């Protein structure tokens, strides 16, 4: 891997554009040092340069690639694919395709990012219709990667295995865990539980041809317990689990806030306990876990939340840098090749039956 | 409906047996008055009578039906079906089958209760393989009924409509809401979102032949918001959503507790705010929402959590009484009949195509 790592940024994406993207670059450098990392900023040159000057960003660490064209946050994927060529989002991806940059980060429109990434970079995993989205889920034991959380609605056993391979490589690269453990999300831990797709995926993972550290089936409450490092599920179930958890967290925060402001005595207690409550909040701070990679593409693409702060965007950059520095792409490619062989040999009748 | 309402109880079910079941009867009478309600207690006469004496339960309100036989909490459903005849669980259900009692409450083994209920009472809904389980979900606006949360793994559009019909009648009976609103759980609100089964169910509900108040698709975070009164989903997704929410709630409680005991200052603050924190806890108190009916049977069956307290069991009794007193069974039966007609007329080719 050539030095320095070059990260391609869609500077116009997200709800805030250059202030958050350029601010994210500064935040990343502050926290992690800028050594060996440079940035390509795609978008309006004047706006980006003004922001870089205001934030006193070292001119050595970045280069601006001007374009007037922007994919709007509410643009439909089909329209973005037709009209998006030459936009900051498209150009950011093209820089990875051309081998110039090592990874892309964008806070833009998710649908458009998925569609244009697929068009420009192509899928590396045969079975996947669309890139898989990973959620980094705070747990009692750290962070668990959950995928897919929304892109691939109907998944067969092969797709679930592709998620397992990509999720394992992602978690190892970003969290420095040597051999992440993997669980399949299901309604119980016994072998006969769940629908056919998840049971078949379980059988294939137990056979262990791929060399993954497979723990078995896990249930919904195992996610927040941190029972495994990587939780694999289809995009329908994963999306509903993620949004249900977000809804539950918001519900509890709301009733906690209501309780702690319900009278003078409660308010006094809350004020005294405030530093501790703030520490608690930081454990579920969205900006500390911002940055969800789109997995399964021929290239590293990290999606930042559209409303992320500069600190949040800086975290998405960190994830892109960690992935680019690691052997993530090579590992995924090797394991997907082994999966292909496994599926093909399972489809070929064994010699005895043709003799 | 004859007076009094007779509730058939499996007195030996659950982790605690008679103390919780008889305690639940006392708790129900204390809170709601015992007028017009009597209880049949199935199980070990000596143990039940001792408990009733200890709790000074009025001999007028209950009758004991002795049996030595008990279905164990860890007994497999198939084994329970083979060997369970004459057990407290089986006899409690037989009393409803015979038309003697109006509803059953059991804190026993869920798998055995489902299997024996189906065997004794039979399914009323054609499409259902097993009874559907309803979760009463605390929300910002009260309580939302979510079903199925675990029994029917693969569901087609017809089954989802059966859940909508049963969930609506249940919510109306137990929460006194005249016309509960219904949402289908999905990954987005647009018509083209989700897999074929949920889209087809959405089309059928929008057509509104059943006269339900259909709101549209809802997402995971809509459950805790209380966007609709009844959330309909397949048993796989529903089970994972419910357990993910429980896991999230436990995770937040754990980090809140850790924060509030992290030092002297935090502890003092927590102590002062304690009454408010207790009020908050009562809003998510499991015993206040204990009691999940098994829907789709020819009879009212309410499952109590195996580890429920007497107060929790009393709440499950309240749900059984509310269902028995309402027009729930008649309404479900009428609507399932209309659904059958609708499905049959959809399956019959229209006259033009045969002319």
From TrEMBL, chains A, B:
SUPFAM superfamilies: Isocitrate/Isopropylmalate dehydrogenase-like
Pathway linked to the protein: Lipid metabolism; phospholipid metabolism
Annotated compartments: Cytoplasm
Pfam families: FA_synthesis
Main location: cytoplasm
Signal sequence region: none
Entry's EC annotation: 2.3.1.274
Reactions mediated catalytically: a fatty acyl-[ACP] + phosphate = an acyl phosphate + holo-[ACP]
Entry's Gene Ontology molecular function annotations: acyltransferase activity
Keywords: Acyltransferase, Cytoplasm, Lipid biosynthesis, Lipid metabolism, Phospholipid biosynthesis, Phospholipid metabolism, Transferase
Family label: Belongs to the PlsX family.
Subunit and partners: Homodimer. Probably interacts with PlsY.
Database matches in NCBIfam families: plsX (TIGR00182)
Its biological purpose: Catalyzes the reversible formation of acyl-phosphate (acyl-PO(4)) from acyl-[acyl-carrier-protein] (acyl-ACP). This enzyme utilizes acyl-ACP as fatty acyl donor, but not acyl-CoA.
Protein name: Phosphate acyltransferase
